Design the sequence.
């Protein structure tokens, strides 16, 4: 999308934040929502208006994982809410108590 709000710089900032501050959340999201229950590590590798991309480590191999947003995002500020939704939904699927 040429007029995306998610420029490469914005995506890099979001990825840095998710990978530096939410590495454990990435694992839960890949396990619970990404169809990779055997994930032992995961990092966010990209995103667009429709979802986040991760690289999950499953049985020692890297596996691409795509997790869609609940709706197409049109503003950067929406990403935080969608990341939080993904985390909470993944916790619910996995039976994990989310942090406060």
Sequence:
């Amino acid at each position: 999308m040429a007029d995306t709000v998610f420029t490469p710089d914005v995506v890099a900032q979001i990825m840095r934040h998710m990978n530096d501050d939410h590495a454990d959340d990435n694992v839960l999201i890949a396990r619970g929502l990404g169809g990779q229950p055997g994930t032992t590590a995961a990092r966010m590798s990209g995103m667009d208006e429709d979802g986040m991309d991760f690289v999950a480590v499953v049985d020692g191999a890297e596996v691409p994982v795509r997790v869609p947003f609940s709706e197409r995002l049109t503003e950067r500020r929406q990403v935080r809410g969608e990341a939080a939704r993904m985390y909470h939904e993944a916790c619910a699927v996995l039976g994990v108590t989310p942090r406060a």
